[in-house]
Design brief:
By secondary structure, the chain is mainly alpha-helical. It has 22 helices and 6 strands. Helix 4 packs across helix 13, helix 13 crosses helix 14 and helix 17 runs antiparallel to helix 18.
């Protein structure tokens, strides 16, 4: 009964989104209220636990929203200048085969963007590109949500990977081979799933070859210690491989090129490449160059919170909330890029004051309702964590599976990412537990930890907070439940498949 009660807030959110067709901005607050009621009645919620959990949740949500708002603003400025259409046209010229083009945009290009900055940015940027290429909005968001998931662990310049290493105390060199193998498998499966969602006939050997290139580059960079560049390098390598494989002429692409539809957008191409290229260089320098990062990371703000305990005796130790490193936070770089891009586009004759005003209004229309959903979802996840509800769910799952726990290990990661909206939080919450279970079951810890973070990556394709972001950029506000109905089966099936891989690795390692 306690397991069912612990799961009930999440089940309510899923039911409202899947069956009631509610958006996250409506289902989230209802799930949050349900979580408070359940926690008070069955898990000993106290006023102290409530305010500490919600204060931490607000800080975590703000950490995400400080990326969301500038990212949407940058996107809308670029869109007003014709930059999104220009990028789509450039890829269309480079990859003549339409089926390969759509797949590489949803899969490899989104993975490269995830390597620079996560937090839903790849979905926010890439989904509108697919819509511009003629893909239906719901399909576009779902394809990118599934397609980019393989890159999440090594995404955001390796922050997620570093968090897993820090909370488990495992050596990166010990964990990297197992993680690279499982994430490589995830890359292949995400590519096949994205191709199926797009409903274009891409031969599986083509998908396998591109996946092999991406998985190989990601593994190589991870094994030599360049984890901050692993996802970015893998995504770029996948694009290069797709360009080479997609050289075959496609009649639709030829017709578009002859009609001039693509060339009409070329004026905005190089300015847009300069904008996003400059952002990539800036973030690489700020986050990827150790001396620079160390100096800038010293400017940090974090709030301290006291130890709290529920009436049932579940203790959350004293500690700090989400740290805000002002100069290395992705939002700072994106906001700077947005402001400079507006000036740059005007300088080259592609922007004006009217366009800036429309970009600001479009950002408000998309970001305001999305912020409500994110705040409530993160608040619910923080509440469940501080009341022991999320931990109870994971423990129940491990007890149920016993010796076959490795099969369920990726599902624990998926659960954590869905509940918290973040692979970082999933790893922080469940990583130590996975390591302890590995010791009890005499399984190599690296196997279960690799399965955990791979599952957390897959959770990105069903995390409501990220789906809300994607839907907000393609005019689907309030319809993220429709996307979830597409991505959820793929997330579960890929998670189960990788659970089988983890089980085989555990058996062989004994």
């Amino acid at each position: 009964m306690h397991y069912l009660l612990a799961a009930s807030p999440i089940l309510i959110v899923i039911a409202l989104m899947l069956l009631g067709r509610w958006g996250g901005q409506r289902a989230g607050p209802v799930g949050w209220l349900a979580g408070i009621v359940v926690a008070a009645l069955a898990f000993g919620l106290t006023p102290e636990v409530l305010w500490v959990s919600q204060a931490k949740g607000i800080l975590l949500a703000l950490y995400v929203l400080v990326v969301l708002w500038p990212a949407l603003l940058l996107y809308n400025i670029v869109r007003q200048a014709g930059g999104i259409d220009a990028l789509a046209g450039a890829l269309q010229r480079a990859i003549r085969k339409r089926s390969v083009l759509l797949l590489v945009v949803a899969w490899a290009f989104s993975g490269a963007l995830e390597g620079l900055a996560g937090f839903g940015i790849p979905i926010a940027i890439v989904a509108p590109m697919l819509v511009g290429l003629g893909v239906m909005p719901v399909t576009a968001v779902a394809a990118v949500a599934v397609g980019h998931a393989w890159a999440v662990t090594f995404g955001d310049m390796g922050v997620i990977w570093q968090s897993l290493v820090a909370v488990t105390g495992i050596e990166p060199a010990t964990l990297a081979p197992a993680a690279a193998l499982m994430l490589g498998m995830a890359c292949l499966l995400c590519g096949l799933a994205a191709a199926r969602i797009l409903r274009h006939n891409v031969a599986w050997p083509v998908v396998a070859m591109i996946a092999g290139v991406m998985a190989g580059v990601q593994a190589l960079l991870a094994l030599i210690g360049l984890t901050p560049l692993a996802a970015l390098g893998a995504g770029l390598a996948g694009i290069a491989a797709a360009v080479w494989l997609g050289r075959a002429r496609d009649p639709e692409a030829d017709q578009a090129a002859q009609s001039g539809a693509i060339d009409s957008q070329s004026a905005a191409l190089w300015p847009t490449l300069a904008v996003y290229g400059g952002l990539g260089v800036l973030m690489t320098v700020l986050i990827g160059v150790p001396p620079v990062k160390a100096a800038l990371d010293s400017v940090v703000w974090r709030a301290a919170f006291p130890q709290v305990s529920t009436l049932n005796g579940f203790v959350t130790p004293a500690g700090f909330g989400q740290a805000f490193r002002i100069f290395t936070h992705p939002g700072a770089s994106i906001l700077l890029a947005a402001m400079l891009s507006a000036l740059f586009y005007r300088w080259v004759g592609l922007g004006n004051l009217a366009g800036w005003g429309e970009a600001l209004r479009a950002t408000w229309r998309a970001a305001a309702p999305a912020s409500v959903g994110i705040l409530s979802m993160v608040g619910l996840s923080a509440l469940m964590e501080h009341c022991g509800m999320t931990l109870l769910l994971a423990q129940g799952l491990s007890a149920l599976m016993a010796g076959a726990f490795a099969l369920a290990s990726p599902l624990v990661g998926i659960l954590g990412a869905f509940a918290t909206g973040s692979n970082i939080n999933s790893n922080v919450l469940f990583g130590p537990m996975q390591k302890s279970v590995a010791g009890l079951l005499h399984i190599a810890p690296a196997v279960l930890l690799a399965a955990q973070t791979t599952g957390g990556s897959l959770g990105s394709m069903i995390a409501p907070a990220k789906l809300i972001v994607g839907c907000s950029t393609v005019g689907l506000a309030g319809r993220d439940g429709e996307v979830l109905r597409i991505t959820l089966p793929y997330g579960v099936l890929i998670g189960l498949a990788l659970g089988g891989v983890a089980w085989l690795m555990a058996v062989v390692g004994k």
